[in-house]
Amino acid sequence: RRCGEVLPVHAHQSSLSNLGTLCEVLRYAVHPFITDILACTEPLLLRDKEEVVRRAAAFVYVQLVDGFRDDVLHAIPEHLRQAYNVLKQAAAQDPDEFVRGHARVALSRWLCCTAVKISCWSPCNAPDTSACSKLRGIRVHAQLR
Question: N or C: which end of the chain has fewer CB within 10 A?
Answer without folding.
Answer: N
